Amino acid sequence: MVIIILMTKRKIFMIKKDVPFN
After folding, report:
1. What gap in Å lies between CA 7 and CA 11, rounded to an integer?
2. What ranges in the chain are assigned the alpha helix state H?
3. 8 A C-beta contact, residue 21 and residue 10
4. 21, 14 contact by CB (below 8 A)
5. What value, to the nearest 5°, has the Cα angle with vertex 13 and ends 3 and 19?
6. Distance between CA atoms of 17 and 1, rounded to whole angstroms?
7. What is the pLDDT of residues 1-22, one digit of tens each?
């Protein structure tokens, strides 16, 4: 599923940047 990949990427990005991203 593409949605899961996008969510995982977004989660990693949030943790890396440490800023809320919608």
Report:
1. 6
2. 2-17
3. yes
4. yes
5. 120
6. 25
7. 789 999 998 888 877 776 655 4
User: Which residue's structure tokens are 């977004």?
Assistant: 10
Structure tokens belonging to residue 6 = 């996008």
* pTM of structure: 0.37
Provide the pLDDT for residue 15.
77
CA distance 19 to 1: 25
DSSP category for residue 18:
T
Question: At residue 10, what is the residue type?
Answer: R
Looking at residue 20, its pLDDT comes to 59
Decide: 19 and 11 in contact? Cβ < 8 Å. no
